[in-house]
Amino acid sequence: MADNQGDFLSEENLCGQTILKLVSRGNAIIAEILRLSDFIPPVFNGQGDHEKYAPLLMDFHYFTISESFEKSYSGNGKLVDLNEEFRDNHKLIIERFYLVFESVYKYVDDLNKYVTQLSEGSFVQETVDSVIKTIEGKQLLAEAVYIYGVMLLLLDIKVPGDVREKMLVFYYRNGGTHVSTDSHIDEVCKLLASTGYIHSSSVDKQSVRPQDYPESLFRRVPLNDYFLQIVCGRMESDDLYNLISFYPNPTHRSHALSGQASMIYVMLYFVPELLHSDSAKMRGIVDKFFPDNWIINLYMTIPVNLAEAWEPYKAARLALAQSLMLENVKRLSLKMHKKMGECGVSVNNFLKEGVLTVNYLLDNRDKLLNCIRESNTTLKWMLLHNSKMAQATNRMKQYKTVQETISTHSHFTHEAVLELLMNSAQLELKVKRMFKQLLAEKISHWTRLRSECEGRMDELSDVFSGVKPLTRVDKNEHLTGWFKQVKSQIAALNHEEWVAAGRNIQQLSQALEEVQEFHQLESNLYVKQFLNDTSHRPERLTLLDF
To answer: How many domains, in total, are found in the chain?
Structure first.
């Protein structure tokens, strides 16, 4: 069963392998969409030779007049020649576009089939409920839905609806190599028909967003309601990727969950009733994922301004309004400005010549990592909330002062951000390389430090046995035996058993400190100094536990 966490993605588990391959395929489709979007023939966008080929570039209105059009087309030799010329120039790229369009439909069709198979028990002992209980299962199910949503949104942003329709009509009319009895062109046309959405990246011009968009697009090929409910519930309540543990500072929680926040943003369009009317759930989602941020990344470098995106949804708008209160915006902006200065000083101090040594790295590991985390979270907030997308609030009168407040109180300058970004990257690279080297030499470091500790125990044993006579140090057979016993315990430490070794090392270090008090060794400065230095040596072994 999927309850066994380690078995879900094993090669023998058909259920796990099926969803893993589906999600991998989805990511490949998104990559192809982004790649092809840079190669849209200019004529489809009304540029280049658009006027010349205009009679051949038709949207889905063609399907209502196809019979009369083809009749007039076949009797017009010039139009036939023009079509041949256009097809020769653009056939290959249009076929690639069609293939990626069809891949989107096949993806959601296969996802629906997978959910149906889970519901019907086609995978032995596996159901939606059992899969969602596993770490890998809930991640992959959430990613599968998210990726489908991203595909649809990216197509509307990168390949406008009128362009898609013209490409599909051209492909259909010219008998593309994939138009056959088993073709999905009807379903592809239904899924990717123009939505009326017109994307704008301009600060002054707002995107044209039809009513009930994008949820109407997401409903064209609907997903199972129960499946969506289960996945959405997990995304709301769980830390899908267990990232919060890597960000111990609670103020970094929204940064730790930023990837999941993008996923739930897309997921909510599959269940728009939450956005419209479930105030309690939306309040919880905003408190968890968007308490101090409202500019997020949809995918890669495509930003979304929640203030604008959630404007049509009452529950979502009211929940986000708390984060967008001017007092909160001012407080956050001042806080980030202060952090910029503090992070800059800390990073520069670490980068000073001779500071970042191996011993310093081991002794100050947490301090270094905290500095890197703080720099990254601060830079991300400053870059996103001072970006062009953040300025989109200028198009909305009720949020116009939000960007002005950020600009005024965050004291954003490209020079300051770039300087911290470059210095932080340099520090991160140095720390990464040093950790990489330590990992490669971990065993040799362990062996060397352990040998040093054993040698020091031998020296102390010899001092108290009389072999190495020292002024004002009396022979003590009890201490001689005790130091030999400590040496044997150090020799028995195993680097492959970090938990047990760490516990034993702490006990040994404590015992070495206490032996000075019990045997009144403080009076001998040499022994005291030697013991103080020795007692900290075993602790360095625990610093290699990473």
So the answer is: 3
Considering the domain architecture, whether residues 430 and 524 belong to the same structural domain is answered as: no
Q: Which two tokens stand for residue 515?
A: 């032996």
pTM, 2 dp? 0.84
Per residue in 30-45, pLDDT tens?
999 999 999 999 999 8
Residues 6+ apart with CB under 8 A from 124: none
452 shares its domain with 423: no
DSSP string, 280-336: HHHHHHHHHH-SS--EEEEETTEEEEHHHHTTT-HHHHHHHHTTT-HHHHHHHHHHH
pLDDT, one tens digit per residue, over 75-122 is 888 888 888 888 888 899 999 999 999 999 999 999 999 999 999 989
Angle, helices 365-385/326-351, rounded to nearest 10 degrees: 140
Last residue in a domain, options 380, 405, 437: 437
Domain that holds residue 336: 325-437
User: Does residue 160 carry a pLDDT above 70?
Assistant: yes
Shared domain for 531 and 450, answered yes or no, is: yes
In-domain check, residue 203: no
Residues 404 and 491 reside in one and the same domain? no
Per the CB < 8 A criterion, the answer to whether 446 and 520 are in contact is: no
Lowest mean pLDDT among 74-88, 147-161, 281-295, 474-488: 474-488
- The residue from 396, 422, 437 where one domain ends is 437
Tell me how far apart the alpha carbons of residues 390 and 401 are, in angstroms, rounded to a whole number: 12
From residue 461, give the alpha-carbon distance in Å to each of 55, 455, 528, 531.
99, 10, 14, 12
Confidence band, pLDDT 50/70/90 cuts, at residue 349: very high
